[in-house]
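HOLO CASE FILE
Compound: PRP
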Amino acid sequence: MPRKTEIKDYIRTIVDFPHEGIMFRDVTTLFADPRGFRMAIDQLLHPYAGVRFDKVVGLEARGFILGGAVAHQLSAGFVPIRKKGKLPGAVISEEYQLEYGEAVVEIHDDAIEAGEKVLLVDDLLATGGTAEAGIKLVERLGGQIIGCAFVIDLPELGGRKRLEAMDMDVHALCAFEGL
Ligand SMILES: O=P(O)(O)OC[C@H]1O[C@H](OP(=O)(O)OP(=O)(O)O)[C@H](O)[C@@H]1O
Ligand SMILES: Nc1ncnc2[nH]cnc12
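Model generated. Tokens follow.
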């Protein structure tokens, strides 16, 4: 095995998971490697040197792992966006489209104050449906999204273009061609 030098070298691809025809980009191998995980957190933070954030918002589930470490480095608070029915307090919700059907994500309605500066973090940007729903939740609470940071972009699925059309600043550490 050649020495791993880039983020992409740490990401494992599982063919036909969870469905036939999907190349699943598995970040657990990146997270499990001490050098890889540190590199990912450092690179997610890189464009935001000197920027002050109030909150990091992480998208369930792998966005929690990245977002927690990023929030610690930024001395910011961490706020989870969860799938419907998981958060215990009062929430606001957004529906979004999945490949088949719909899903709902939620945020506590007091998790972000109006005017707070927010960094949105997730492991992977595909269609952008999840991130768009997360952005809408933060903006409904009056938060100001300064950036959206991902480890992986799947450009063929159009998520980056979708978020950029919403005037979002999108930062991804690597891209994979193919679904
Ligand atoms: O850009 P999109 O097309 O919305 O897809 C990206 C989302 O899909 C994956 O999460 P998934 O919905 O599989 O949930 P999980 O992390 O809880 O497994 C990934 O971690 C992103 O959150
Ligand atoms: N190819 C893929 N790998 C991992 N997570 C995904 N979410 C959507 N598409 C994915």
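CASE NOTES: The helical segments are 28-32, 34-45, 62-74, 129-140, 159-164. The pocket of PRP (ligand 1) is lined by residues 59-62, 122-131, 159 (CB under 6 Å).
CLOSED: yes
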